[in-house]
Amino acid sequence: MSIISKDIQKAVKLLTNEQLVAIPTETVYGLAGNIFSEKAIKSIFSTKKRPFFNPLIVHISGVEKLENIVTHIPEKAKLLADAFWPGSMTLVLKKSEKIPDLITAGKDTVAVRIPNHPVTLELLRQLPFPLAAPSANPFGSISPTKPAHVERYFKNDIQQVLDGGSCENGIESTIIGFENEEPIIYRLGALALEDIEAVVGKITIKNKKEQSPDAPGMLARHYAPSTKTFLVDNVAHEIKNHPNKKIGILVFKDSLKDKNLTEIILSENGLMHEAASKLYNSLHELDSLKLDVIIAERFPDNGLGKSINDRLQRATFSA
Ligand code: TXA
Ligand code: MG
After folding, report:
1. Residues 149 and 184 in one domain
2. 214 within a domain of the structure (yes/no)
3. Is 204 annotated as a binding residue?
4. pLDDT, tens digit, for every residue of 52-108?
5. CATH code (residue 63)
6. Residue 57 Cβ contacting ligand 1 at under 6 Å
7. Domain, as residue range, for 153
8. How many degrees, rounded to 5, is the angle at CA 151 between CA 130 and CA 89?
9. Model pTM greater than 0.85?
């Protein structure tokens, strides 16, 4: 029997009983548990096979919930929250002592976000506690953007994927922390950099492992298909390096028009948002075809293209 269901009351019951439920958000599906249940939080880590040093994002239904979670909100964090919540932005702020160390991996900061999905907002309003939710994929593998992706990963581990359809934005939230009251981007994500800078001005990006050993999710290899994947500027050129191989191609907007290849075009109209929303599903599809290699085309380095390139880079072995 399928574990995918739209029943919010069932999710409320499971979560109240310290069980995990996969929840829809506008970015990717999350593997959610009660932040105050040690049992639930431990099982998030064990189900994902995620190391304990990698902290979790706390999901809340509204800004009024922040006061129980953080102790200080910088001015620019307020501007960002006004501009982008509910939405695909996670803020890293000084944590309240009520937040268990297991959530934050012992740090003095906590990552928090108000997701913009009607089903999960309704669920959060019905629960007397916030939800910790990392992306609902085994550690290191491709994030899920459809209920079926989660079911494939975790059907033997959890009792419900709360069905909210396909994720509209399709890549994870943009993570923003603060150093001396100034915002720093720790993870590029579903918000375009330009849109963030329109609110708080020029912003520093520290999303490389060397730069931010503190954001452990920034591992060089992450979000990865099991098929060997390459990220290149010129796909036609790279194909020549793989003679007699079964090749899958992932391109932005222009077809290579080669019938011998399995090809996915992310947005024929060249829309970055459409491309982002289809990115992980396309990787899931190509990865299921038992190909020898996947060759992905690098995106223009602006807008959401920057975030898409970040994810593709981490999905690949080579530069
Ligand atoms: O869109 C999203 O953010 C999704 C949905 C489900 O909300 N969640 C998600 O969670 O992507 P996860 O666990 O896959 O990624 C969370 C990232 C990790 O890279 C983690 O290291 C970072 O957030 N993080 C969490 N708490 C942090 C903190 N206190 N300081 C710095 N980084 C933190
Ligand atoms: Mg993740």
Report:
1. yes
2. no
3. no
4. 999 999 999 999 999 999 999 999 999 999 999 999 999 999 999 999 999 999 999
5. 3.90.870.10
6. yes
7. 4-205
8. 40
9. yes
Q: Is the CB of 27 under 6 A from ligand 1?
A: yes
Check whether 173 is labelled as a binding-site residue. yes
Q: Give yes or no for a cis peptide into 138 (omega within 30° of 0).
A: no
CB 312 within 8 A of CB 231: yes
Cα–Cα distance, 1 to 20 (Å, whole number) = 18
Burial environment of residue 289 by CB neighbours within 10 A (0 to 12, 13 to 18, 19 or more) = exposed
Give yes or no for residue 170 CB within 6 A of ligand 1: no
Cα three-residue angle 125-39-71, rounded to 5 degrees = 55
Closest ligand relative to 90 C-alpha: 1
Q: Which residue has the tokens 């299921």?
A: 288
Q: Residue 283 sits in a domain of what CATH number?
A: 3.40.50.11030
pLDDT in tens, 113-141: 999 999 999 999 999 999 999 999 999 89
Residues 149 and 259 in one domain: no
Does the CB atom of residue 92 touch ligand 1 within 6 A?
A: yes
* Best mutation site among 175, 191, 212 for ligand 1 pocket (most ligand atoms within 8 Å of CB): 175
Last residue of a domain, one of 205, 240, 270: 205
CB of 90 sitting under 6 A from ligand 1:
yes
Residue with CA closest to ligand 1 atom 15: 134
- Cα atoms in the 13 Å half-sphere on the side-chain side of 137: 21
pLDDT per residue as tens digits for the range 144-179:
999 999 999 999 999 999 999 999 999 999 999 999
Q: Is residue 210 part of a domain?
A: no
* Residue 279 · residue 266 · CB < 8 Å: yes
